[in-house]
Specification:
5 copies of one chain form a homopentamer.
Chain A: H1 9-14, H2 21-46, H3 60-108, H4 114-134, H5 157-174, H6 180-185, H7 187-205, H8 210-235, H9 239-261, H10 273-287
């Protein structure tokens, strides 16, 4: 995620940051300029169509449907943003649960036991394992070595860590180091890890339905490609910047939505899961 | 569900996938083309109505109501998408609860007991039974055979599996193999199965209110059928692609909404419940 | 609730079902036609106002406010639909809680006890009592006779059933037929009954604020009544179908919203609470 | 809250109820009529500006921004309605929790004990105290006298009642009249009282951010005041009803939103907290 | 947060409060006036372009995209408001949990113990520590001195307070001053502190995705800067107030959104966390 000051207007307007849609779309801008110029030339200079041509009135399509395309793009924007924000909430919940688990275990376990040490290392491991799991890779070096725990990378890694933590807690309970009520009082945090993992997997694996994705792209394409046909008669060669600007606006919304709807990767707008994981490790170490 | 790369724009625009609304609507496109051509012929060439005909101004209806129809379609899209996404969330919760139950039972039960074996087979059976139940069928072969459990297919199958699992847990509790606090700590997961089943049944059995469904279809029909009456005067025979394109946009939104509002079937955009069920079986087996 | 196939377009468009707004509004259509014809006659034939009359430009009101009225109707549609869907969710939760309670009690209680029999009869009684309570009536014949339970119809009926079930459970607990942890494990289901009842009462008793209801109706009325004043000059006697169609669209949305915002009655779009109650009885009997 | 039949259209349209925005805004209507007439006179009759004056085209502002103002008013409407509905939900939850607490205590406590009497009086007191607390007053006469409980009106009254009820419950637990599990089973209801109180205080104390409130009012003011400047040229003295009607629509939405965003007072649309409190007392008395 | 009477219309319209966007934007108003005047002079007086210039029709861009920009600003407004309101909800929950914890502990602990004293001082400390933590500073003087507790300002301060409170509770449990069920009954409140802290940190640290922030600013800039190019032909030098007003509206929405999306600072619209913290201290002292 790019860290930024949302109040620095002029920086935003004139610089073209990594992740700026202007950069990504510029080849398309060139193509569309050529296309629009060609349409303008053919209609005005080659066929010398007059301004009362019926083709001029084709613009009614853009008037009638301009509203629908806007609504669709806002629907797209809302759903993509909701996923991004839901992903952020789940990582926030991971922070909260890691902290709460550390705070509770710290209150339950005597100082300087091996179990304290175990949880200090193992709880933050979950965040790192989940972060990498969501990016479909495994970085062993990011996990703290914990005695008695080995990862089988062919299996679901976060599940193994969660299962190991839970087995440790129940072992403490069987040894009566923690009571039944204390076991119940950490139940919420323990099951939250797996719930968060499942929710993030759901967000990553489920883009908006295929039909919408196709439909929006087709709609933008036909809308923009037919734009010069009618408007050439009213704006002449000015159609070139008009088409480019309209395309810039519509395509940008679709592009940004595509980028943020899976928020766990390495895109410019993705969530800072590396930083969050490191913070969990830091705060858990402070507490336990 | 179709797995796709949402960033492959050009593939989307020019190919006509299974489930693409262009394929489904193409017979209607033909019909509408003929109708529009007929209207254009009758008004312009047969009656030779002049451009100052009052019929030309009928287009005010489309201007005044174009906004309402767009809003309605977005309402339709939002509610259908919400069901689809809610269904996805419930199946995600099924994954989470199956995993959490396996993780907790793994921590409670000694290695190599028949109960571990029982839960390893029985918990994933719930997902398969639910998947088929939501499609109104029963596939015995997808359920693992579990000693002591027989299905009565004339009754509600998921309920039988949930009841059998719960009875097994309470039996372990009566035999003091798990304690009262341990019983409480799996209570959430156990009741979640039936809650998820009920929520999915609710989504499947309750389309949007009949009146909205009728009203939207009538509205689209009259909107599109009256479109050529007035616009013929401004665009001539170009009315044919205009009507077809407007109809394509409006009808596509309704069609996609119809398809995704019951997300548990076999439609192109439906949820991958087969894959999810298989994953539950795989992950539970890894843990227990 | 009308059961229907949402994909049967042509049936929808040409048939006029019970609950179709066309049927309900047809007297108004007639009235508006006469009114519009009168306005057209007076302006065009009686006073022979010319097309450059200032009255013609009164249509700016409809342009400026057409958007506001659409937004308001969508707000109305959304809130009404949300109540309908929230009501459906509560009845879904009633199904889930009845099933879960039956599944849990089945696991706790020995076979063939009078308590099993008691819960098999009493739990579904709650759904039937609630259904009738929400319709402000009481149908004694729909409740199964349960030994030791008599209804006082002058008091809140669902509360009596819930209190009786809870008293039975606590009696079992005092007799140590169920343990403290088992008591806690059904706590959620037991309190859910009364929560659902209260939520449904809230939906039934609270229509949208009076001011909105009045405002929307006044707005639609003035919007439609002033429509012919200006548009007569552009469409002549075609104003009659135009006004009728615009009114049909605006009033339909308000009418449907009125119907579904209290979803527990006997309207065509109301929830199938009879069927749901019968299903609860059937499934609870299968389990217990 | 005004109780009304949402289907009585004609009553709504022609009567001007208490709380109707037409009544509240009528002085403004007069002022705006004079203003518009003055603008019309000055532009048309005094300066005799011609219809091709550049001032005529100032209407582009209203076209460009008409959409923004509508969106803003819908945003305003949605947030105000959400508070009103959230307030209603909290009072519904108060009903549910009072009933559930009564039902559970009824099952736990033997008949005819002083504790039953205590809770029968004290639980409904909370609703009455909260109702008055939210209106910033205290009506001692509405609280039932409970032996051993005196209110200190200089302190937070609902908190005192909640604390007294909780102290009573824990006292019963210390005397072993209720068990630990029974204590836990009423924990949710007991903490819900204070959660509901805090949520209602939040709604009452937090109107939408000051900047939005100011901005919307300024925007409506400038939008309406500049309306006659340009439109006088097209509609002449008909500008007077046009401006009044546009103002009526825009200001009504803001007025209604202001009224319902704090739903606990005595405004026409406020929630019927008196009735709800009385119902809680009635139903709790039926149960306990 | 500015405390205000939302019904005082005229005060709002004519005064320019601190935080009013008119004040913040006035330098930009001047710049835009000069720019618009320059464009008008160049087009009309220098080049003497005629009204049938193709440049005039460039306004189609503003018509086609006016809708998209409005939708985007409403999306922006909604998400910013949602954060502000979510932040307010979390602080409301902090109030509720502090009160509930005090009420429960008051019922559990005997009068005049050091533990009561401890919680009376320590629970409100959390609110003050969180308030300052969210503003990235630490004000030791606002924390009550509690025997046995020292803050390490290099570490996460709220976490230390939460951990200290939890350790104290578990110590009471080990000493059997509170029972296991009583420990469980305060579990929710204890973990809520850290959940609230994490949620507020999430809101503060996560503005809307960078790409949207950039895109909206670029879009407003180009939209406003191109506005005079075409509209000069229709409104002449009146373009100056038109451009300023359109910019005022669009930029105000973005400015207010920027201000409220991080609601924990010292901006005019930020939440009154100082007051809320003081209230928590007052109410907890009343109860314990």
């Amino acid at each position: 995620m790019i860290d930024y000051n949302p109040k620095a207007w002029f920086t935003f307007i004139f610089r073209f940051h990594k992740g700026d849609t202007v950069r990504k779309l510029s080849p398309m801008f060139l193509g569309l300029s050529i296309y629009s110029a060609a349409v303008a030339y053919i209609e005005m200079d080659f066929f010398k169509l007059k301004a009362d041509s019926e083709l001029k009135n084709i613009v009614i399509v853009h008037t009638l449907l301009g509203f629908v395309i806007s609504m669709l793009l806002v629907f797209r924007t809302n759903t993509a943003y909701d996923r991004w924000w839901e992903g952020r909430k789940h990582w926030g919940a991971l922070v909260n649960n890691s902290r709460n688990l550390a705070i509770k275990l710290s209150a339950m376990l005597p100082a300087n036991t091996t179990s304290r040490e175990y949880f200090r290392l193992m709880v933050p491991n979950y965040a790192f394992a989940l972060k990498n799991h969501l990016r479909m890779n495994f970085i062993g070096g990011e996990l703290e070595t914990v005695p008695g725990f080995t990862v089988d990378t062919t299996k679901h890694v976060p599940n193994q860590i969660a299962a190991h933590i839970l087995a440790h807690i129940h072992e403490l309970y069987r040894q009566q180091q923690i009571s039944g009520e204390q076991l119940l009082s950490v139940n919420h945090e323990l099951q939250a890890f797996t719930d968060i993992c499942g929710a993030c997997e759901r967000i990553r694996n489920t883009p908006i339905p295929f039909s919408y994705s196709v439909f929006i792209k087709k709609f933008i394409f036909f809308y923009v490609m037919t734009l010069p046909l009618g408007y050439v008669f009213t704006v002449g060669y000015l159609i070139i910047p008009v088409v480019v600007f309209v395309f810039y606006v519509l395509a940008s919304l679709e592009l940004i939505a595509e980028e943020i709807e899976d928020p766990f990767g390495f895109d410019a707008n993705d969530l800072p899961t590396d930083t969050i994981s490191a913070n969990i490790r830091k705060h858990v170490a402070e507490i336990l």
